[in-house]
Amino acid sequence: MAIVLVLAGGAVGAVCRYILDGYVKAALGKAFPWGTLCVNVLGAGLLGALHGAGTGTYVEALLGTGLCGALTTFSTFELDTVHLMQDGAYGRAAVNAIGSLLLGFAAYLALHTLLGHLV
């Protein structure tokens, strides 16, 4: 059952990532990987909320592993950072690398803590 839930969550997460990334790129341009940053921070926050709420195995399979796993992307984050460096945009590469990690962790921690206190 958990495998089916991961599959279903992954299908939704991948589509959401594609749509959100495209929307953000259209709105903010391609000079900085805002789309990747947004999906990663959103996924980290959602995962923090799930863990803070103490959801069960099936909810975590569907929304945590499936949805968040497909929504977020470490490999694209790395690739975006490398492309910035190859383009000589070292400052933006550093902001992307450090900002992604700090914002993702902050979103996770904030929503984990918030939901942990509410539930």
TrEMBL record:
- Residues noted as binding Na(+) in the record, renumbered to the chain: 69, 72
One Pfam family, short name: CRCB
| Top-level taxon | Bacteria
Which keywords are on file for this protein? Answer: Cell membrane, Ion channel, Ion transport, Membrane, Metal-binding, Sodium, Transmembrane, Transmembrane helix, Transport
Membrane topology, from the record: Multi-pass membrane protein
Localization, UniProt:
Cell membrane
Its UniProt entry gives the catalysed reaction(s) as:
fluoride(in) = fluoride(out)
Say if the entry is tagged with keyword Transmembrane helix. yes
Keyword Cell membrane assigned: yes
Q: Which InterPro entries match?
A: FluC
Q: How activity is regulated?
A: Na(+) is not transported, but it plays an essential structural role and its presence is essential for fluoride channel function.
Q: Which residues cross the membrane?
A: 32-50, 57-77, 89-111
Q: What does this protein do?
A: Fluoride-specific ion channel. Important for reducing fluoride concentration in the cell, thus reducing its toxicity.
HAMAP family noted in UniProt: FluC
Q: Which family does it belong to?
A: Belongs to the fluoride channel Fluc/FEX (TC 1.A.43) family.
Q: What is this protein called?
A: Fluoride-specific ion channel FluC
In its UniProt entry, the species of origin is given as Actinomadura nitritigenes
